[in-house]
Write the C-alpha coordinates for this entry.
Amino acid sequence: MPSFDISMIIPLAAVAIVLLAVIYLTRYYYRDLLFGPPVDFDGDSYVEIGLYPGNCRAALVFTCDDVNAMTKPEKVVKVLNVLDKYETKTVFFLIPFFKGRYMMVKDSEVVKVLKEAEQRGHEVAQHGLTHATVRRRMLFLGWGKELGSLPYSEQKRRIKKGRKILELAGFTIHGFRSPAFSASIDTLKVLDSEEFLYTSDTRIRPIMLMSNKRFCESLYYPYHPGGLGILDFTNNGDYFWGYTKLGREDLRSLKHRFNKFYERRGAFVLLSHIEPLSRGKGLKILEEFLKYTQTKSLWKPNLRELAEWWNAREALFAVSEIKKNTLLIRLEKSSDYTLKNLTIKFKPNIPAQSYEILDANGALLKKGKISESVVLLDV
Ligand SMILES: [Zn+2]
Protein backbone atom coordinates (compact mmCIF):
# COMPACT_ATOMS: atom_id res chain seq x y z
CA MET A 1 0.00 0.00 0.00
CA PRO A 2 1.54 3.36 -0.97
CA SER A 3 2.29 5.55 2.00
CA PHE A 4 0.72 9.03 2.11
CA ASP A 5 3.21 11.70 1.29
CA ILE A 6 2.81 14.39 3.96
CA SER A 7 4.46 16.97 1.73
CA MET A 8 1.40 16.81 -0.58
CA ILE A 9 -0.88 18.37 2.04
CA ILE A 10 0.09 21.96 1.32
CA PRO A 11 -0.29 21.80 -2.50
CA LEU A 12 -3.59 19.89 -2.16
CA ALA A 13 -4.89 22.43 0.32
CA ALA A 14 -3.84 25.25 -2.02
CA VAL A 15 -5.72 23.65 -4.93
CA ALA A 16 -8.82 23.22 -2.74
CA ILE A 17 -8.68 26.86 -1.63
CA VAL A 18 -8.34 28.09 -5.22
CA LEU A 19 -11.28 25.91 -6.33
CA LEU A 20 -13.45 27.19 -3.49
CA ALA A 21 -12.50 30.76 -4.32
CA VAL A 22 -13.38 30.27 -8.00
CA ILE A 23 -16.78 28.78 -7.08
CA TYR A 24 -17.41 31.61 -4.63
CA LEU A 25 -16.47 34.41 -7.00
CA THR A 26 -18.21 33.06 -10.09
CA ARG A 27 -21.40 31.78 -8.52
CA TYR A 28 -23.62 34.18 -10.45
CA TYR A 29 -22.36 32.84 -13.75
CA TYR A 30 -25.70 31.30 -14.64
CA ARG A 31 -27.43 34.66 -14.27
CA ASP A 32 -28.49 36.94 -17.10
CA LEU A 33 -26.00 39.13 -18.94
CA LEU A 34 -26.99 42.45 -20.51
CA PHE A 35 -25.51 44.16 -23.53
CA GLY A 36 -26.38 47.83 -23.44
CA PRO A 37 -29.36 49.46 -21.70
CA PRO A 38 -32.41 47.14 -21.90
CA VAL A 39 -34.83 49.80 -23.19
CA ASP A 40 -37.12 49.79 -26.23
CA PHE A 41 -35.70 53.06 -27.51
CA ASP A 42 -32.34 54.67 -26.80
CA GLY A 43 -31.96 56.86 -29.89
CA ASP A 44 -32.09 57.08 -33.69
CA SER A 45 -30.36 59.28 -36.27
CA TYR A 46 -32.10 62.47 -35.04
CA VAL A 47 -32.69 62.14 -31.30
CA GLU A 48 -31.46 60.47 -28.15
CA ILE A 49 -33.84 59.93 -25.21
CA GLY A 50 -32.18 60.08 -21.79
CA LEU A 51 -32.27 57.05 -19.52
CA TYR A 52 -32.95 59.31 -16.50
CA PRO A 53 -34.89 62.51 -15.86
CA GLY A 54 -33.54 66.06 -15.98
CA ASN A 55 -30.76 65.34 -18.47
CA CYS A 56 -28.86 63.33 -15.83
CA ARG A 57 -26.23 61.01 -17.19
CA ALA A 58 -26.48 58.26 -14.56
CA ALA A 59 -28.27 57.38 -11.30
CA LEU A 60 -26.89 56.89 -7.80
CA VAL A 61 -28.69 55.22 -4.88
CA PHE A 62 -27.18 54.38 -1.51
CA THR A 63 -28.45 51.31 0.36
CA CYS A 64 -27.84 50.11 3.89
CA ASP A 65 -28.55 46.54 5.04
CA ASP A 66 -29.28 44.76 8.28
CA VAL A 67 -31.07 47.51 10.22
CA ASN A 68 -33.11 45.62 12.83
CA ALA A 69 -34.81 46.00 16.21
CA MET A 70 -31.41 45.87 17.98
CA THR A 71 -29.84 48.64 15.86
CA LYS A 72 -29.00 51.75 17.86
CA PRO A 73 -31.02 54.66 16.38
CA GLU A 74 -27.95 56.97 16.65
CA LYS A 75 -26.19 54.87 14.03
CA VAL A 76 -29.05 55.37 11.57
CA VAL A 77 -29.08 59.11 12.31
CA LYS A 78 -25.32 59.42 11.67
CA VAL A 79 -25.65 57.76 8.26
CA LEU A 80 -28.61 59.99 7.40
CA ASN A 81 -26.71 63.14 8.37
CA VAL A 82 -24.00 62.37 5.81
CA LEU A 83 -26.50 61.45 3.08
CA ASP A 84 -28.73 64.49 3.65
CA LYS A 85 -25.71 66.78 3.42
CA TYR A 86 -25.05 65.49 -0.13
CA GLU A 87 -28.73 65.17 -1.08
CA THR A 88 -28.42 61.44 -1.65
CA LYS A 89 -31.25 59.06 -0.85
CA THR A 90 -30.89 55.73 0.83
CA VAL A 91 -32.88 52.56 1.16
CA PHE A 92 -32.62 50.86 4.54
CA PHE A 93 -33.16 47.11 4.16
CA LEU A 94 -34.79 46.04 7.42
CA ILE A 95 -34.67 42.60 9.03
CA PRO A 96 -38.26 42.23 10.30
CA PHE A 97 -37.67 39.52 12.95
CA PHE A 98 -33.91 39.33 13.52
CA LYS A 99 -32.77 35.80 14.42
CA GLY A 100 -36.42 34.97 15.17
CA ARG A 101 -36.11 36.96 18.43
CA TYR A 102 -36.08 40.71 17.81
CA MET A 103 -39.11 42.14 16.02
CA MET A 104 -39.42 45.59 14.46
CA VAL A 105 -42.33 47.23 16.27
CA LYS A 106 -44.28 50.44 15.87
CA ASP A 107 -43.14 53.44 17.91
CA SER A 108 -39.79 51.93 18.90
CA GLU A 109 -36.95 54.47 18.73
CA VAL A 110 -35.35 52.98 15.62
CA VAL A 111 -38.71 52.85 13.80
CA LYS A 112 -39.36 56.51 14.69
CA VAL A 113 -36.01 57.53 13.19
CA LEU A 114 -36.78 55.54 10.02
CA LYS A 115 -40.25 57.08 9.71
CA GLU A 116 -38.71 60.55 9.88
CA ALA A 117 -36.21 59.55 7.21
CA GLU A 118 -39.10 58.51 4.95
CA GLN A 119 -40.47 62.05 5.24
CA ARG A 120 -37.25 63.30 3.68
CA GLY A 121 -37.47 60.91 0.71
CA HIS A 122 -35.48 57.96 2.04
CA GLU A 123 -37.03 54.51 1.77
CA VAL A 124 -37.30 51.33 3.82
CA ALA A 125 -37.48 47.89 2.23
CA GLN A 126 -37.47 44.28 3.40
CA HIS A 127 -34.43 42.10 4.06
CA GLY A 128 -35.76 38.54 4.55
CA LEU A 129 -37.48 37.59 7.80
CA THR A 130 -34.85 36.49 10.35
CA HIS A 131 -31.58 36.68 8.38
CA ALA A 132 -30.74 33.27 9.80
CA THR A 133 -30.63 29.94 8.05
CA VAL A 134 -32.63 26.96 9.28
CA ARG A 135 -30.36 24.52 7.43
CA ARG A 136 -27.10 23.13 8.69
CA ARG A 137 -24.16 24.84 7.05
CA MET A 138 -20.55 23.89 6.62
CA LEU A 139 -18.74 25.63 9.48
CA PHE A 140 -19.69 29.30 9.43
CA LEU A 141 -20.16 29.50 5.65
CA GLY A 142 -23.50 30.91 4.60
CA TRP A 143 -24.91 31.40 8.08
CA GLY A 144 -26.95 34.38 6.96
CA LYS A 145 -28.25 32.84 3.73
CA GLU A 146 -31.85 32.61 4.79
CA LEU A 147 -33.80 31.89 1.63
CA GLY A 148 -32.38 30.30 -1.52
CA SER A 149 -32.10 26.70 -0.37
CA LEU A 150 -35.60 26.57 1.16
CA PRO A 151 -38.67 25.13 -0.62
CA TYR A 152 -40.89 27.61 -2.48
CA SER A 153 -43.70 27.45 0.08
CA GLU A 154 -41.37 28.14 3.02
CA GLN A 155 -39.77 31.07 1.20
CA LYS A 156 -43.24 32.44 0.50
CA ARG A 157 -44.25 32.09 4.17
CA ARG A 158 -41.13 33.92 5.34
CA ILE A 159 -41.42 36.73 2.80
CA LYS A 160 -45.11 37.30 3.58
CA LYS A 161 -44.58 37.17 7.35
CA GLY A 162 -41.67 39.62 7.15
CA ARG A 163 -43.66 42.07 5.09
CA LYS A 164 -46.60 41.84 7.51
CA ILE A 165 -44.32 42.65 10.47
CA LEU A 166 -42.97 45.72 8.70
CA GLU A 167 -46.48 46.82 7.74
CA LEU A 168 -47.61 46.51 11.36
CA ALA A 169 -44.60 48.65 12.31
CA GLY A 170 -46.03 51.34 10.02
CA PHE A 171 -44.15 50.91 6.74
CA THR A 172 -45.32 50.31 3.19
CA ILE A 173 -42.93 47.92 1.49
CA HIS A 174 -42.14 47.92 -2.24
CA GLY A 175 -38.71 46.34 -2.38
CA PHE A 176 -36.76 43.35 -1.17
CA ARG A 177 -33.20 42.11 -0.80
CA SER A 178 -32.41 38.54 0.20
CA PRO A 179 -30.18 38.10 3.27
CA ALA A 180 -26.59 37.47 2.14
CA PHE A 181 -27.85 37.58 -1.47
CA SER A 182 -29.33 34.11 -1.05
CA ALA A 183 -32.12 34.46 -3.65
CA SER A 184 -32.89 31.56 -5.96
CA ILE A 185 -35.19 31.81 -8.95
CA ASP A 186 -37.96 30.59 -6.59
CA THR A 187 -37.34 33.61 -4.33
CA LEU A 188 -37.77 35.92 -7.30
CA LYS A 189 -40.95 34.11 -8.35
CA VAL A 190 -42.42 34.53 -4.85
CA LEU A 191 -41.56 38.25 -4.85
CA ASP A 192 -43.06 38.65 -8.30
CA SER A 193 -46.30 36.88 -7.31
CA GLU A 194 -46.51 39.00 -4.13
CA GLU A 195 -46.26 42.10 -6.34
CA PHE A 196 -43.04 43.53 -5.02
CA LEU A 197 -41.96 46.32 -7.35
CA TYR A 198 -38.27 45.49 -7.21
CA THR A 199 -35.65 43.29 -5.70
CA SER A 200 -32.00 44.06 -5.25
CA ASP A 201 -30.49 40.63 -5.31
CA THR A 202 -27.36 40.65 -7.40
CA ARG A 203 -24.07 41.72 -5.94
CA ILE A 204 -20.81 42.74 -7.54
CA ARG A 205 -18.09 42.59 -4.93
CA PRO A 206 -15.11 44.90 -5.10
CA ILE A 207 -13.43 43.57 -8.25
CA MET A 208 -10.62 41.15 -7.50
CA LEU A 209 -8.29 38.97 -9.51
CA MET A 210 -10.71 36.09 -9.91
CA SER A 211 -13.97 38.04 -10.26
CA ASN A 212 -16.19 36.97 -13.14
CA LYS A 213 -15.37 39.94 -15.36
CA ARG A 214 -17.90 39.13 -18.08
CA PHE A 215 -20.68 39.16 -15.51
CA CYS A 216 -19.36 42.20 -13.62
CA GLU A 217 -19.05 44.22 -16.83
CA SER A 218 -22.59 43.43 -17.93
CA LEU A 219 -25.12 44.44 -15.30
CA TYR A 220 -25.07 48.24 -15.34
CA TYR A 221 -28.83 48.69 -15.63
CA PRO A 222 -32.01 47.53 -13.88
CA TYR A 223 -33.50 44.49 -15.63
CA HIS A 224 -36.07 41.74 -15.28
CA PRO A 225 -34.31 38.56 -14.11
CA GLY A 226 -35.54 35.33 -15.63
CA GLY A 227 -38.06 37.29 -17.71
CA LEU A 228 -40.18 38.06 -14.60
CA GLY A 229 -42.14 41.29 -14.08
CA ILE A 230 -40.07 42.28 -11.05
CA LEU A 231 -37.02 44.52 -11.56
CA ASP A 232 -33.62 43.59 -10.15
CA PHE A 233 -30.95 46.11 -9.20
CA THR A 234 -27.30 45.13 -9.18
CA ASN A 235 -25.43 46.16 -6.02
CA ASN A 236 -21.86 47.26 -5.73
CA GLY A 237 -19.88 46.67 -2.61
CA ASP A 238 -19.57 46.53 0.28
CA TYR A 239 -16.70 49.04 0.18
CA PHE A 240 -17.19 50.04 3.82
CA TRP A 241 -16.55 46.67 5.37
CA GLY A 242 -12.79 46.98 5.50
CA TYR A 243 -11.62 44.42 2.96
CA THR A 244 -8.38 46.32 3.11
CA LYS A 245 -7.03 48.04 6.18
CA LEU A 246 -6.39 51.12 4.10
CA GLY A 247 -9.45 53.30 3.63
CA ARG A 248 -7.78 54.99 0.68
CA GLU A 249 -7.67 51.71 -1.22
CA ASP A 250 -11.42 51.14 -0.67
CA LEU A 251 -12.22 54.65 -1.84
CA ARG A 252 -10.05 54.28 -4.93
CA SER A 253 -11.69 51.03 -6.01
CA LEU A 254 -15.15 52.43 -5.22
CA LYS A 255 -14.54 55.47 -7.45
CA HIS A 256 -13.20 53.22 -10.19
CA ARG A 257 -16.32 51.06 -10.10
CA PHE A 258 -18.62 54.09 -10.01
CA ASN A 259 -16.85 55.61 -13.03
CA LYS A 260 -17.58 52.50 -15.09
CA PHE A 261 -21.29 52.90 -14.37
CA TYR A 262 -21.10 56.61 -15.05
CA GLU A 263 -19.45 56.13 -18.46
CA ARG A 264 -22.14 53.62 -19.46
CA ARG A 265 -25.06 55.70 -18.09
CA GLY A 266 -25.76 52.99 -15.52
CA ALA A 267 -27.73 52.92 -12.27
CA PHE A 268 -25.12 52.69 -9.52
CA VAL A 269 -26.57 51.08 -6.40
CA LEU A 270 -24.08 51.21 -3.55
CA LEU A 271 -24.23 48.54 -0.86
CA SER A 272 -23.37 48.99 2.81
CA HIS A 273 -24.20 47.36 6.16
CA ILE A 274 -25.18 49.45 9.15
CA GLU A 275 -22.68 47.99 11.64
CA PRO A 276 -19.41 48.11 9.67
CA LEU A 277 -20.46 51.43 8.12
CA SER A 278 -20.77 52.91 11.60
CA ARG A 279 -17.35 51.64 12.68
CA GLY A 280 -13.87 52.84 11.79
CA LYS A 281 -13.57 54.78 8.57
CA GLY A 282 -16.91 53.75 7.00
CA LEU A 283 -18.70 57.09 7.20
CA LYS A 284 -15.57 59.00 6.25
CA ILE A 285 -15.19 56.94 3.07
CA LEU A 286 -18.88 57.47 2.30
CA GLU A 287 -18.55 61.23 2.75
CA GLU A 288 -15.46 61.44 0.55
CA PHE A 289 -17.17 59.39 -2.13
CA LEU A 290 -20.30 61.57 -2.10
CA LYS A 291 -18.10 64.66 -2.29
CA TYR A 292 -16.43 63.16 -5.36
CA THR A 293 -19.79 62.52 -7.08
CA GLN A 294 -20.99 66.10 -6.54
CA THR A 295 -19.48 67.29 -9.82
CA LYS A 296 -21.20 64.51 -11.80
CA SER A 297 -24.53 64.68 -13.58
CA LEU A 298 -26.49 62.31 -11.32
CA TRP A 299 -30.09 61.55 -10.56
CA LYS A 300 -30.34 60.50 -6.91
CA PRO A 301 -33.69 58.80 -6.30
CA ASN A 302 -34.57 56.00 -3.89
CA LEU A 303 -35.08 52.53 -5.37
CA ARG A 304 -38.86 52.79 -5.50
CA GLU A 305 -38.62 55.98 -7.56
CA LEU A 306 -35.96 54.44 -9.77
CA ALA A 307 -38.03 51.27 -10.30
CA GLU A 308 -41.18 53.21 -11.22
CA TRP A 309 -39.23 55.43 -13.58
CA TRP A 310 -37.40 52.51 -15.18
CA ASN A 311 -40.57 50.48 -15.74
CA ALA A 312 -42.00 53.40 -17.69
CA ARG A 313 -38.75 54.37 -19.43
CA GLU A 314 -37.88 50.90 -20.71
CA ALA A 315 -41.28 50.64 -22.44
CA LEU A 316 -41.11 54.08 -24.06
CA PHE A 317 -40.81 54.04 -27.83
CA ALA A 318 -40.23 56.92 -30.21
CA VAL A 319 -40.48 57.47 -33.95
CA SER A 320 -38.96 60.54 -35.58
CA GLU A 321 -39.25 61.93 -39.10
CA ILE A 322 -38.73 65.25 -40.88
CA LYS A 323 -41.61 66.97 -42.63
CA LYS A 324 -41.25 70.42 -44.18
CA ASN A 325 -38.37 71.70 -42.08
CA THR A 326 -39.89 70.26 -38.85
CA LEU A 327 -38.66 67.26 -36.90
CA LEU A 328 -41.71 65.31 -35.71
CA ILE A 329 -41.16 63.04 -32.70
CA ARG A 330 -43.98 60.70 -31.72
CA LEU A 331 -43.70 59.17 -28.24
CA GLU A 332 -45.48 55.90 -27.45
CA LYS A 333 -45.69 55.17 -23.75
CA SER A 334 -47.26 51.94 -22.48
CA SER A 335 -46.94 52.62 -18.73
CA ASP A 336 -49.35 54.62 -16.56
CA TYR A 337 -46.47 56.12 -14.61
CA THR A 338 -45.58 59.70 -15.66
CA LEU A 339 -42.06 60.23 -16.93
CA LYS A 340 -41.36 63.59 -15.30
CA ASN A 341 -38.60 65.65 -16.88
CA LEU A 342 -37.95 63.17 -19.67
CA THR A 343 -34.86 64.28 -21.62
CA ILE A 344 -34.84 64.50 -25.41
CA LYS A 345 -31.56 65.52 -27.04
CA PHE A 346 -31.17 66.49 -30.68
CA LYS A 347 -28.24 65.05 -32.57
CA PRO A 348 -26.01 67.40 -34.62
CA ASN A 349 -26.79 68.40 -38.22
CA ILE A 350 -30.53 67.75 -38.26
CA PRO A 351 -31.93 69.10 -41.57
CA ALA A 352 -34.80 70.98 -39.87
CA GLN A 353 -35.28 74.24 -37.96
CA SER A 354 -38.07 73.34 -35.55
CA TYR A 355 -39.44 70.32 -33.70
CA GLU A 356 -42.81 69.05 -32.57
CA ILE A 357 -43.22 66.33 -29.93
CA LEU A 358 -46.48 64.38 -30.15
CA ASP A 359 -48.08 61.68 -28.04
CA ALA A 360 -49.19 58.31 -29.43
CA ASN A 361 -52.53 59.82 -30.54
CA GLY A 362 -50.84 62.66 -32.39
CA ALA A 363 -51.65 65.36 -29.80
CA LEU A 364 -48.99 68.07 -29.51
CA LEU A 365 -46.96 67.90 -26.27
CA LYS A 366 -44.30 70.50 -27.01
CA LYS A 367 -42.78 72.43 -29.88
CA GLY A 368 -39.80 74.71 -30.37
CA LYS A 369 -36.49 75.22 -32.17
CA ILE A 370 -33.90 72.51 -32.81
CA SER A 371 -31.29 74.99 -31.57
CA GLU A 372 -32.55 74.34 -28.00
CA SER A 373 -30.59 71.05 -28.35
CA VAL A 374 -32.06 69.55 -25.12
CA VAL A 375 -35.79 69.41 -24.27
CA LEU A 376 -37.31 68.35 -20.95
CA LEU A 377 -40.98 67.40 -20.74
CA ASP A 378 -43.46 65.34 -18.73
CA VAL A 379 -44.94 62.41 -20.64
ZN1 LIG B 1 -27.91 41.26 5.46
